[in-house]
Specification:
By secondary structure, this protein is an alpha/beta fold. It contains 5 helices and 8 strands, in the order E-H-E-H-E-H-E-H-E-E-E-H-E.
């Protein structure tokens, strides 16, 4: 893979996550909201947003982790023995506004799988979608409520998000796939 463009460095990512947190604080009733990150890189996004919201309000924001592996429609294509890390939502989502966080929104299939799994945890009052990068190319009618970056991509390009929690550094790259 060849790097085509660096979309954001550590500072750009931090500023964008702070803006996303501010937008969420303005539009949502935080006492009725929970954040759920889609593994892998949606989790640090949700955790960082929660930390900023807690700093602004002085009140804790609950964060869960969702592993959609068994809900994917391409499970048989991704790996013979996929790595399952498991979901961890240690609170009730019944009647709550769930803010689903992911790093990159592409076809919408990951979000659809996450919605299917979330319904197994209960009936939420509302579902909002927060993504760090929207790269377009939707195959399903899914639209984010909160978007960090909108990046126009070509079909052969891939957006790579790196977080220090998972990758040792913060950056967003546009790379050309082979």
């Amino acid at each position: 893979m060849t790097v085509v463009n660096r979309i954001a460095d550590e500072g750009g990512i931090q500023r964008t996550i702070e803006r996303l947190a501010s937008e969420i604080a303005e539009r949502e009733n935080l006492s009725e909201a929970v954040l759920v990150g889609i593994r892998t890189r949606g989790v640090p996004l949700a955790q960082r947003i929660a930390a900023i919201l807690e700093g602004k309000t002085g009140k804790p924001v609950r964060v869960g982790q969702l592993d959609i592996t068994f809900y994917r429609d391409d499970l048989t294509r991704i790996a013979e023995a996929p790595m399952v890390k498991g979901s961890n939502i240690p609170f009730q989502i019944e009647g709550k506004t769930v803010i689903l966080c992911d790093d990159v929104l592409y076809t919408g299939r990951t979000v659809r799988a996450a919605m299917d799994e979330l319904l197994d945890f209960g009936r939420f009052a509302a579902l909002r979608l927060c993504v760090l990068v929207d790269r377009g190319w939707r195959e399903l009618p899914i639209c984010p409520d909160y978007t960090g970056f909108q990046v126009k991509t070509m079909g052969h390009e891939v957006v790579e998000v790196k977080f220090r929690e998972t990758d040792g550094r913060d950056e967003i790259l546009l790379v050309e796939s082979l």
